[in-house]
């Protein structure tokens, strides 16, 4: 079980092609701020058919997109 599982569950439930998440929303979902380890954990999203397209430190957002290659 990953410490980011609640975030992955939130993304799956939204079932969107693209999702822009603020750091504040992520904190509300997880109960902690994302840290440098997120760069490693973000690879877990691949199992759910998503990937992190962009992390904006300036805007404090993360853009997640559905991996279109898995769809037929």
Question: In a few lines, what is going on in this structure?
Answer:
This protein is an alpha+beta fold and 72 residues long. 31% of the residues lie in helices and 25% in strands.
Model description:
- The protein has three helices and three strands, in the order H-E-H-H-E-E.
- It is α+β, with helices and mostly antiparallel strands.
- Strands 1-3-2 form a three-stranded antiparallel β-sheet.
- The termini are far apart.
Number of E strands: 3
Please outline the major beta sheet. 3 strands, antiparallel
As a percent range, the share of helical residues equals 25-40%
Arrangement of strands in the largest sheet: 1-3-2
Regions with pLDDT < 50 over 5+ consecutive residues?
A: none
Rounded Rg: 12 Å
Structural class: alpha+beta
Distance between the termini: 30 Å
Q: Return the average pLDDT rounded to an integer.
A: 93
> What general outline do the C-alpha atoms trace?
globular
Count of DSSP-assigned helices: 3
Strand percentage lies at: 25-35%
H/E element sequence: HEHHEE
């Amino acid at each position: 079980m990953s410490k980011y599982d609640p975030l992955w569950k939130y993304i799956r439930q939204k079932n969107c092609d693209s999702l822009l998440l603020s750091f504040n929303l992520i904190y509300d979902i997880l109960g902690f701020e994302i840290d440098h380890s997120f760069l490693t954990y973000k690879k877990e999203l691949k199992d759910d058919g998503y990937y992190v397209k962009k992390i904006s430190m300036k805007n404090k957002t993360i853009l997640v997109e559905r991996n279109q290659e898995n769809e037929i």
